[in-house]
Amino acid sequence: MATDVTIECIQGDIANQPDMVAVVNAANAELRTGGGVAGALHRAAGPKLAEECRPLAPIKPGQAVISGAHDLPNQYVIHCLGPVYGQDEPSDKLLANCYHNAIEIAENQGIESLAFPSLSTGAFGYPMEEAARVAMKTVIDVSRKCRYLKKIRFVLFDEKAAKLHQEILDQLRHET
Ligand code: AR6
């Protein structure tokens, strides 16, 4: 039986979500540290995260893999490689695959709560509003089939992005 999944949008830091079982990384193909989300998560997790990830790399756009969370206050990190906007095509399909695959991995692990950043909207250049529509639509669809997941949280870096995600979530919920 599917559970009812709560979807919420907050302003915050993806590396500081202690009440979530798993957090999602906006990774690079090599699963190394980097800027933005990857930098924040690897810094907080410590060097053992990159060490654990090395044999899992490289990953392709749209793919997701899971690791432990090391010094982060979570149990798992699910690493997704988002599409580089204007380069990895079709970018909307590849971005949707990230959300779909991350949720599928979480379900297979029996994870109850999962926090996402806004994948691809930093260094990878995906326009925030377009990306938020893809993200919300995918998460609403996939979460209908979840058995274990109870909460999905979008953690946005600034207030404007959090408000935009909330508005799109509200719109899409009313349409479906
Ligand atoms: N918490 C929540 N959101 C954040 C945080 C944070 N600590 N830091 C940045 N954001 P990005 P991408 C927002 O660049 O576009 C990396 O260097 C940010 O404002 O982290 O998928 C990797 O190594 C933006 O809206 O991810 C890859 O090479 C969003 O999170 C590449 O960048 C995603 O920004 C991945 O690029």
Relative strand content: 15-25%
Count of helical segments? 5
Q: Give the helix proportion (percent range).
A: 25-40%
Largest sheet: 6 strands, mixed
Poorly predicted regions: none
Pfam family, one: Macro
Protein name: Macro domain-containing protein
Domain Macro: 1-173
Organism: Pistricoccus aurantiacus
Structure write-up:
The protein is of the alpha/beta class. 39% of the residues lie in helices and 18% in strands. The protein is built from five helices and six strands; from the N terminus they run E-E-H-H-E-E-H-E-H-E-H. The protein has helices at 36-45, 47-53, 91-109, 128-143, 159-175, and strands at 6-11, 22-26, 64-68, 76-80, 113-116, 151-156. A six-stranded mixed sheet has the order 1-6-5-2-4-3, with helices on both faces. Helix 3 runs parallel beside helix 4. The two termini are 20 Å apart. The mean pLDDT is 97. Ligand AR6 binds at residues 13-15, 26, 28, 34-38, 40, 82, 117-124, 155, 157.
List descriptors.
single chain; 176 residues; six-stranded mixed β-sheet; binds ligand AR6
What topology does this entry show?
Layout: E1 6-11, E2 22-26, H1 36-45, H2 47-53, E3 64-68, E4 76-80, H3 91-109, E5 113-116, H4 128-143, E6 151-156, H5 159-175
Parallel strand pairs: 1-6, 2-4, 2-5, 5-6
Antiparallel strand pairs: 3-4
The protein binds ligand AR6.
Residues 13-15, 26, 28, 34-38, 40, 82, 117-124, 155, 157 line the site of ligand AR6.
Characterize this entry briefly:
By secondary structure, the chain is of the alpha/beta class. The protein contains five helices and six strands. Helix content is 39%, strand content 18%.
